[in-house]
UniProtKB/TrEMBL annotation:
Protein name per Swiss-Prot or TrEMBL: Mannosylglycerate hydrolase MGH1-like glycoside hydrolase domain-containing protein
Gene Ontology annotations of biological process type: oligosaccharide metabolic process; protein N-linked glycosylation
Taxonomic placement: Bacteria, Bacillati, Actinomycetota, Actinomycetes, Propionibacteriales
UniProt xrefs under InterPro entries: 6-hairpin_glycosidase_sf, 6hp_glycosidase-like_sf, Glycoside_hydrolase_63, MGH1-like_GH
Keyword Secreted: no
Family: Belongs to the glycosyl hydrolase 63 family.
GO molecular function, one term: Glc3Man9GlcNAc2 oligosaccharide glucosidase activity
Gene source species: Kribbella italica
A Pfam family that the UniProt record links to this protein: MGH1-like_GH
């Protein structure tokens, strides 16, 4: 069977009739940024189905504009995944049960690429006119409700919102959180994946406590006393890329794109504050320069937060930002010993030389296919085609040899986490189209 046919089989097998689950075993519902990557791949099989994937996700959008990170399927047992709908206690006005937190905003980029895959079908279905106001509401929520530091960047309030759950970048901030007692919840993830690959019980207890506090304050961003609040480079870089995509969508609809281009410009300038020593770093908005140990840099006088020292894949993802002033220095860091671009498999999720590096555990070292796709897009934008082609070839070989693994060991390429994973198949399809 060809690689394209195998990837197609994964997406067809994980299709539920209106959306695609990331994994039948580990993730049996619809996840936000997964669906965006899935649509990017689906557009090569069926642009209409890619549109439906995104439209299904937007059907779970809240009245305040946020797109929750999980849309729960009523066809799945309520206790099949934890935290499930009974924990989150969140239902949209349309009756969809969801989580209360968010994930990185890849959606406008996915919508624009989906439209481009078959513009005639998109126009026939009225795809862009229907999704554009939803995307505007989503970005408006982020920029107005989540600028918790007052510096023009969007903050995450839970590690899950970054999509990079147990990244070492969150360690210091999480250490301030008293975990929920282990006997107060039952994990389901370790039923389907090795505990050595997954976050620890201690981290999971802290995740649960953060989510419960947000829930108990009715997911009110102004009222919740967030113990965890950070400006994340990847989250904001993806928002910038999506603002550029919204500008393209606006133009296609005969609307003025100026607002989106200005937003992208403002975000790009604000993102620069997170750059130091050749890499973008998260900014911990609840830490002070006086107590931060080994911080990568301090905030300006009177401004909240310090840059955390951990170097992660999040700090490289700004390579996708058009016209990024720091691109040359960032590319040099990617190629250096810390991330080994072109020397190890894909792009490791954490600094290979860092003290918290673990080659098997989730976002603490392994290489992921979706972030490699983002780096590939950045390299292509920068006209680094040889490096982009090398990364693409590595990704395709690994997807084939690992049966579309969730992530891989950066040194030997062995599969980790779940297999038959949807976004791995999706980005495989997209990169196969780049021949």
């Amino acid at each position: 069977m060809s690689l394209r046919s195998a990837a197609k089989q994964v997406l067809l097998g994980n299709w539920t009739g209106h959306s695609t689950v990331p994994s039948r075993s580990l993730y049996p519902h619809q996840w936000s940024w997964d669906s965006a990557f899935i649509a990017i791949g689906l557009r090569h099989l069926s642009p209409r189905r890619a549109q439906v994937e995104l439209e299904s996700l937007f059907g779970s959008q809240w009245s305040d504009g946020r797109i929750p990170h999980i849309s729960f399927s009523p066809a799945v047992a309520r206790d099949a995944y934890f935290p499930g709908p009974d924990f989150w206690q969140a239902t949209t006005t349309g009756g969809v049960e969801t989580s209360g937190i968010i994930q990185p905003p890849v959606h406008a980029l996915a919508a624009w690429l989906t439209h481009q895959a078959d513009e005639a079908e998109s126009v026939r279905r009225g795809f862009l006119p229907r999704v554009y106001p939803k995307l505007v509401a989503w970005h408006t929520y982020l920029r107005t409700r989540r600028d918790l530091g007052g510096r023009g960047l969007v903050a995450i309030v839970h590690p899950w919102e970054s999509g990079m759950d147990n990244s070492p970048a969150w360690d210091d901030a999480l250490a301030r959180v008293t975990p929920a007692p282990l006997d107060s919840f039952t994990r389901r993830d370790t039923d389907h994946a090795s505990p050595a690959d997954r976050p620890t019980d201690l981290d999971y207890g802290r995740y649960v406590q953060l989510a419960a506090t947000y829930r108990d304050h009715q997911y009110d961003d102004a009222a919740t006393p967030f113990e965890f609040a950070l400006d994340d480079p990847a989250f904001n870089a993806l928002l910038i890329a999506s603002e550029h995509a919204l500008a393209d969508i606006a133009e296609a609809l005969g609307l003025d794109p100026t607002h989106h281009l200005k937003a992208a410009e403002e975000l790009t300038k604000a993102l620069g504050e997170l750059f130091t020593n050749g890499l973008f770093h998260a900014r911990d908005l609840r830490a002070s320069a006086e107590v931060a140990s080994g911080s990568a840099g301090s905030a300006e006088a009177g401004a909240p937060g310090v840059l955390v020292p951990a170097g992660t894949i999040s700090g490289l993802i700004p390579l996708i930002v058009p016209g990024l002033p720091q691109a040359a220095d960032l590319l040099a860091t990617a190629r250096g010993e810390r991330f080994g671009l072109g020397q190890v498999h894909l792009v490791p999720s954490y600094d290979l030389t860092g003290p918290a590096f673990e080659r098997e555990r989730y976002w603490r070292g392994p290489s992921w296919f979706n972030t490699a796709w983002l780096i590939h897009r950045g390299l292509t934008t920068l006209n680094e085609q040889d490096q982009a082609d090398q990364l693409r070839d590595d990704l395709l070989k690994l997807a084939d040899s690992t049966d579309f693994a969730e992530y891989v060991d950066p040194y030997d390429g062995s599969p980790r986490g779940a297999q038959i994973f949807s976004w791995t198949a999706a980005v495989t399809l997209d990169l196969l189209s780049c021949r």
